[in-house]
Amino acid sequence: MSDFSRVKRYLFFGTVGNIIGWIIYNVIFFSNPFAWNKATTSWLLSYLIGVAQQHEMHRRWTFSESKQKYLDSLKNSYLAYSLGLIVSTIANYYFVYDLEIGLQVSWLLSVIASVVVNYFALKRFAFKLT
Q1: Which end of the chain is least crowded, N or C, by CB within 10 Å?
Q2: For the chain, what are the domain ranges?
């Protein structure tokens, strides 16, 4: 598969996954009993759930030519997404608490903050493609 086709698939399935992730985030946010950093703790939990969901979609449709075993690629996806998690969680805190941007816009900006990093980390580290 060409890199252009792979990036298009990554963006498409990433968008689908993030729509699902947005729903998960909101369910967690509105049921989160903790007042302390409610938006960011909800972001963190939904992100961790979303990694497994995104891994499945990207393994099946974006990086389908990978020869990595399922559990190896899942484990490495969690490691690869860790960088995106750090970047996006810091960004989310900054957007919500420092810039006082609305909850939904902060969520979207936090997602965007991790997209490029996650693509290259998944491609090279989780799925071992060049």
Answers
A1: C
A2: 3-126
Query: Which residue, chain included where needed, has tokens 């699902």?
Result: 20
The first and second tokens of residue 25, run together, are 């985030």
65 in helix, strand or coil? coil
In this structure, how many other beta carbons lie within 10 angstroms of the beta carbon of residue 92?
26
Cβ atoms of 10 and 57 within 8 Å: the answer is no
Return d(Cα 111, Cα 82) in angstroms, integer: 13
Digit-coded pLDDT (tens) for 4-56: 999 999 999 999 998 999 999 999 999 998 888 898 899 889 988 999 999 99
Question: What's the distance, CA 9 to chain centroid?
Answer: 15
pTM (predicted TM-score): 0.73
